Amino acid sequence: MHEPVRPHVEDYLARPDGLPAEASAHLKECGACRAELEAMVFQARAIRSFRTDNAPELRAGFYARVMDRIDTQRPVPMWSAFMDSAFGSRLALASAALTVIMGFLLVQGEPLNRPKPMPIDPSSVAAVTDDASDRALDPAVDNDQDQVRNAVFASLASYRE
Q: Is the sign of the CA dihedral 90, 93, 99, 102 positive or negative?
């Protein structure tokens, strides 16, 4: 529904002749708004047809009984759906098992398949750094230096006291 008609829908449903001139002009031009308003008028008439002239008589104390019933009902906790069913107990058991397993892995501290550190002789590292200026142009030496550098990094990363 377009803007010129939207604020006046309730007025139109109450009295179809009580629309402002701008909204009436828009309804004459816009078939979509006109069709939507006609559907709303049809629905309003259908709902009004269900209204009865005589309201049913309620017994004495009806509202008091309703309010008493509302007050006596306790709110149902959200967790009762999980704890009162078989699914809830299985979920709690699985959560406890997962917590124990994760705790064990956290306390253990090391993965099972960790590779052992590569042994490196400190004199070979010193020799490589001393000879680096002499062999800087040889590509085979660069590969050896890369291997030694990687071995040093691996040894430092896996160092334990």
A: negative
